[in-house]
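Dear support,

We are seeing what looks like truncated structure output for some complexes. This example has four components. We would appreciate it if you could run it in full and send us the complete token output so we can diff it against ours.
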Amino acid sequence: MAVRVSQSDPGTAARILDIAERLVQVRGFNGFSYADVAAELGISKAALHYHFAGKADLGEALISRYTSNFAEALASVDATAADAPARLAGYADLYLQVLRNEKMCLCGMLAAEYQTLPQPMREAVMRFFDQNEGWLEGVLEQGRTDGVLQFAGPGRTTARLIIGSLEGAMLIARPYGDDARFQATVDSLLGGLIRPAAAATVA
Amino acid sequence: MAVRVSQSDPGTAARILDIAERLVQVRGFNGFSYADVAAELGISKAALHYHFAGKADLGEALISRYTSNFAEALASVDATAADAPARLAGYADLYLQVLRNEKMCLCGMLAAEYQTLPQPMREAVMRFFDQNEGWLEGVLEQGRTDGVLQFAGPGRTTARLIIGSLEGAMLIARPYGDDARFQATVDSLLGGLIRPAAAATVA
DNA sequence: GTCTATAGGCAGATAGAC
DNA sequence: GTCTATCTGCCTATAGAC
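Here is the complete output from our reference environment:
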């Protein structure tokens, strides 16, 4: 009694989030229901409401966890990629992995449905993109300073171009079920940012 | 009696399409209902079913008309823009006009909801993107031949980059309600395609 | 072409037993 | 924590009168 968890069973809550996350990434927030999650998890709809009072709460939790997980992935790229070009490639690879599972980026999907989302979810979606912009801006400016990247204007603008291009490339590649189409688009985009002289160094 | 229209009243059908189109572009295909359209048009839901038997039929008609209208807009750009750079700018401006009305591209929105769409709508969505790719490819290859555009690889790949980047930039700019953000992204994208020397004088 | 009325189903959510 | 049962509301769609 002295020591106890302050929340509901993390195992079940996490499993709910896993299922709901995939459903949103495939079908959208307006394209899945509590019944879908309940059926897949093998519990009742009412039990879901115990863990997440309403769909809006579930949605907030989804974005929050997704953003945290993405931050970890970015830290991992920082830790393993040697220079800015490699970090950009690692960033694009995060998107490719999502597309390979026939999913859309969670927040890209929610951006499409933005006008139908409750306010807390809206704010959380924007925070995700803000986080991505900030990380990319840092990589881009560092790369330019190091002389391995080339682009005009502020890094923030090119960061936004990269995010938008990757989200849009995912959006369109998914109907065609064509990962190669996505990869070719990415190569074309990032190829224009890498200084030719430095390109050989990347291997 | 000898002469009569072969279809339902085009006026009402067109008005239904106008309202439904905007609703889909703002809220998504899974985010609006017959009741929304009926209320806005001031008729009953049952009357809608007279013009469009089911939601799927309405959806097909929406994409079909949107694709036709877009083709006309592309022809207009061809007719008014003097060279490839101007045509690319005109193309991007079509997207900006949509974003200004706080809407997403109809087919960009439907691409997000792709997995929930009936098969005929899926095919129509892809045809829209195919049309865009074809037009852009022509503009790009012509511009490269004329020495006013520069890009590596096949025109088709850069065409896909442009479509994806514009769709993605719209997708993300809309939550922020920031047209300038979109425009800056577009400038950054297209700026990399225009040959510096050729921008001022040709040959 | 448009209406009212309604069918039949699924949505998100709650009450209360266990 | 999970259940069954149920509520209320909205959804797409249809029947039949006008």
